[in-house]
Amino acid sequence: MVPYVADLTLVELKKLENxxxxxxxxxxxSGIKLDMxxxxxxxxxxxxxxxxxxxxxxxxxxxxxxxxxxxxxxGIIELRRLFADLLGLNADNIxxxxxxxxxxxxxxIMRLYxxxxxxxxxxxxxxxxxxxxxxxxxxxxxGICEELGIEMIPVPMLDNGPDxxxxxxxxxxxxxxxxxxxxxxxxxxxxICYSEQTVKRLAAMPAAxxxxxxFWDNAYGVHHLGATxxxxxxxxxxxxAGKPDRPxxxxxxxxxxxxxxxxxxxCSSADNMTExxxxxxxxxxxxxxxxxxxxxxxxxxxxxxxAHMKKLAGxxxxxxxxxxxxxxxxxGGTGLASxxxxxxxxxxxxxxxxxxAKATVKLAADAGLKMTGAGATFPYRRDSLDRNIRIxxxxxxxxxxxxxMKLFCxxxxxxxxxxLIADRSK
Amino acid sequence: MVPYVADLTLVELKKLENxxxxxxxxxxxSGIKLDMxxxxxxxxxxxxxxxxxxxxxxxxxxxxxxxxxxxxxxGIIELRRLFADLLGLNADNIxxxxxxxxxxxxxxIMRLYxxxxxxxxxxxxxxxxxxxxxxxxxxxxxGICEELGIEMIPVPMLDNGPDxxxxxxxxxxxxxxxxxxxxxxxxxxxxICYSEQTVKRLAAMPAAxxxxxxFWDNAYGVHHLGATxxxxxxxxxxxxAGKPDRPxxxxxxxxxxxxxxxxxxxCSSADNMTExxxxxxxxxxxxxxxxxxxxxxxxxxxxxxxAHMKKLAGxxxxxxxxxxxxxxxxxGGTGLASxxxxxxxxxxxxxxxxxxAKATVKLAADAGLKMTGAGATFPYRRDSLDRNIRIxxxxxxxxxxxxxMKLFCxxxxxxxxxxLIADRSK
Lengths: 426, 426
Prior knowledge:
2 copies of one chain form a homodimer.
Chain A: H1 10-28, E1 34-36, H2 43-46, H3 77-87, E2 94-96, H4 101-114, E3 130-135, H5 139-147, E4 151-158, E5 161-162, H6 164-173, E6 177-182, H7 196-204, E7 213-217, H8 234-240, E8 247-252, E9 264-267, H9 270-283, H10 289-299, H11 302-331, E10 337-339, E11 348-352, H12 357-366, E12 369-371, E13 388-391, H13 398-425
Parallel strand pairs in A: 1-12, 3-4, 3-6, 6-7, 7-8
Antiparallel strand pairs in A: 2-9, 4-5, 8-9, 10-11, 11-13
Helix pairs in contact in A: 1-13, 7-8, 11-13, 12-13
């Protein structure tokens, strides 16, 4: 238990440092080896979806198509209807992909980059392309921008989504700003949910670029830990604002059934989908319809998904509780860290004292605990305040997680106390 | 039965036209409805792979990875080893994809186009990019070039592969010529196999472009109808010629297990694969490893694939026989058509009299038989002689195929006779 550190004298801080160091060294020598770096489901979660791996004998889809053979660029209609029903989308505007929604995002940006959209200049032909990146955010979104040389403009996340004053100012001012990354429900890593007001402002705001696009990655759209957090419909909002082509909506069953073998989907306006299909049909003959059948037969319908997600929450909630309990107990009231308390999703985000994230993560790694790299949640891996750390509670067992959090809290405290000592000694 | 038409008088030709027209009209009125337009396996073939749809309970790979979860960018090692063993490749240089090798080809070209390779200028930044397209060839290869504005240069196919004199002349002369499409075994649509000499010349020929690439689509690499036709190893040949980075090799189980749910693979030099993976890891977290496990457990090993292909050949050989028997019986010795007699693959290619392919395909369509569009086997769908028609015998049942071939032969003959009449009447 660490006291409120700002009240401590330098001598008291040094005494505290020694205590923490002793605890750290004891744990470091105990041979911990844990990986909390990625938001992976645990085996116990995956076990709940084994029904989706049952053998298939009847390979016909609802409309009589033999799912084993070629064809069906959009995927099987009954699974498109399930997604439509679950998320409030139009099944006609959905295309199902393989196992990776990231792949669909990448390909969508690549098409905008190489071919352009609706007669606008392809982004590759412009002097520069820029994206608004609410952060902290998802490292793999930023990775796509970085690979294509798309300049990332960080915008802070507030309690109800990105700082919309700033987003609106940017989008209106610069025609080279072509898009924004959004994880609207239980954002990665903070678990922030976009309010109705945020959704409406994103939909309605003037953008200098006629081909400004919202990349709406609803990765955690049904991943509630307890009560359901509502999310306003981005298509309704964009339609109402007269900007139907603005959003590209992504979703997958990666964290419903299997991360390696789920089904991803993309949805956009009818016009956008017509254009998308004209490229997609050159790229592939169609997705794996048998896996779509498997996924469909296991989940059955939207209610089936919701019931399944309740079971998964039963696995996840105790893990989030462990994380939050440890943080509260070990760091609460110390002034050394603040953190989010998400109602869903896969992560807890913690802010250390400024300038302490990298050192904290290194300290943990040296003792055998691998966390997501400090800075990973920011464009170019640059957390200018060096304070954000993503905690991914899902993969370890509860026992491992307790061990990990005990160590992690000591690392946060030790690094913070050392920084205070250094500051005071200046 | 049609006589050798060149010997007939105009009156005899007109009589023959009437006879053929009567036969055509009788068939047309019988309500035929058949689709022979794509190279799709028949349901009876797919039934032989139902073992690959068995349920999975053990999801561990050979190296202990849980195939249900994220990760494993290259796919599972044991299936990479199977492909390596089957095709004489290096498993370390193989990456497994989803269900579509076409998708891997598209993405590979897209990377060369957007990012370039090994420091060469990205193709998108050049004033033009050109590809050598042996033809007739595979329409979807040409579709990728067309989508990216890559200029296609047709080169004729000879008995042992593309006209290598012409290929060598083109590749040496123009640095904007960046690649060549090859289906080296049982080419689509002619079923031509590249000789060892052809493979060696492709590997060794000087190319003005340092980033000249061979797209080696070995789609029918194990798809023998009878005896095995050998194919020289393109990597050995390129290594020997000091051009290890030249080939990108593609293969899939689309026509081994399921077209919609097979496993695709790509193989190239170690340097090319290092570069490829650096992009791939931005695009996706990894392929569907569970489907790879399913495919592996069904096929077991290279011998298992070969045994399975023998069973499939048992389904296909009678269909190829029907096609060739009808062509022989109805068109043999008439001078109205010539055709290939493939020892494997999925197609028979037929040449009508010059200027007759489009009209023949239309005649067939009007009577209810859909063939691959005339011209589809050429870049820009332009068969300058308007004579090539792709016959895809695999999808219909034997009974349907007999019906279809009877009608098709009449369409070829009727169109040819009409052309001769028109020529003589000039």
